[in-house]
Design goal:
single chain; mainly alpha; Alpha-Beta Plaits; 3-stranded mixed beta sheet; 10 helices; 8% strand
């Protein structure tokens, strides 16, 4: 099974190849939809490179030596927050490109469409469809074990590209079939119409990724995680005779961030540090998710102001 970084590197190479084919065949065949497919792939390649960079930083920050030099000094609280930023930017760019292409397709239809070399267009669609299907299959299979948001988004992008290419292939075959017949005039509209339909299909797809990324960026507490942490904290309060607790949780990319403050009675008997650490260990085990991507703070105070 490839690593997250390994798959992303392979995806970048494949995406650049597809983008180069799209731009070249788009110019040769006169197809706006193929040129859009190439530009879409090129943007996706750039964002995958950025995702690979962030993935490497996250992995290094979780290792024993952490981030080197200036990066380590600047990002003392980790770099998990970069992941939702990249995911949100990626999804937003893909939506923006699709909206722009949709506008151009509408303008082309209004202006009467344009001529297209369907033979070159069909060759491009067949080659690209094979590449997209292979990368989507490999990525989906690898991500069963990796469970990476970056790989999941990249697989989604390959599926989207494959869907676009499938629609293009069907349209080009239809256009090739009607060219030279009494329906020849309709062939001029094949390219802009299929481009418009493809854009309408793919525009909503990244919206879910953008919404989840915004949720992480804004530190919106996941309801299930909040409920679980509150339950663990409440049981700890009852077990040890504390007054109450305050829980602050968030999911930031692949990281789970939890801060727990337990309010102890002012007359609570003096307790050894090792006993407090034992309570922390019990709470940490009950919260779960222990890994290099968990940020857990557990504090005890008799003054509620330190917890609010």
């Amino acid at each position: 099974m490839p690593s997250e970084q390994g798959f992303l590197r392979a995806s970048i190479v494949a995406t650049v190849v597809v983008a180069a084919l799209g731009i070249a065949f788009g110019l040769l065949s006169g197809s706006f939809s193929i040129a859009f497919d190439g530009a879409y792939s090129l943007i996706d390649a750039g964002m995958t490179m950025l995702a690979l960079l962030v993935s490497n930083l996250i992995v290094r920050s979780g290792q024993g030596d952490g981030l080197p030099g200036r990066l380590g000094r600047r990002f003392t609280m980790g770099v998990w927050h970069l992941e939702p930023i990249v995911l949100g930017l990626n999804g937003t760019l893909l939506i923006a490109v699709a909206v722009y292409a949709l506008i151009n397709a509408a303008i082309s239809v209004i202006n009467g469409g344009h001529e297209l070399r369907f033979d070159l267009a069909i060759v491009y669609a067949l080659v690209t469809l094979v590449v997209c299907a292979a990368m989507a299959f490999i990525g989906a299979r690898a991500n069963r074990g990796l469970k990476s948001d970056f790989v999941a988004l990249d697989v989604k992008a390959w599926i989207m590209s494959g869907g676009i290419t499938s629609a293009l292939l069907i349209a080009f075959i239809i256009g090739y079939a009607v060219a030279g017949t009494r329906f020849d005039s309709l062939s001029r509209y094949v390219d802009p119409v299929v481009l418009a339909l493809v854009c309408l299909v793919i525009i909503p797809i990244p919206i879910g990724t953008v919404r989840r990324a915004l949720s992480d960026i804004l530190l919106i507490a996941p309801t299930d995680l909040q409920a679980h942490v509150d339950q663990v904290a409440s049981e700890t309060v009852q077990r040890h005779g504390f007054v109450s607790h305050r829980a602050y949780v968030a999911k930031v990319g692949r990281a789970m961030r939890v801060e727990l403050y337990f309010i102890v009675p002012k007359d609570f008997p003096a307790t050894a540090i090792m006993e407090w650490d034992r309570i922390r260990d019990d709470v940490g085990a009950a919260v779960g998710g222990e890994s290099q991507n968990r940020w857990l703070v557990i504090a005890f105070t008799a003054d509620e102001r330190w917890a609010d």
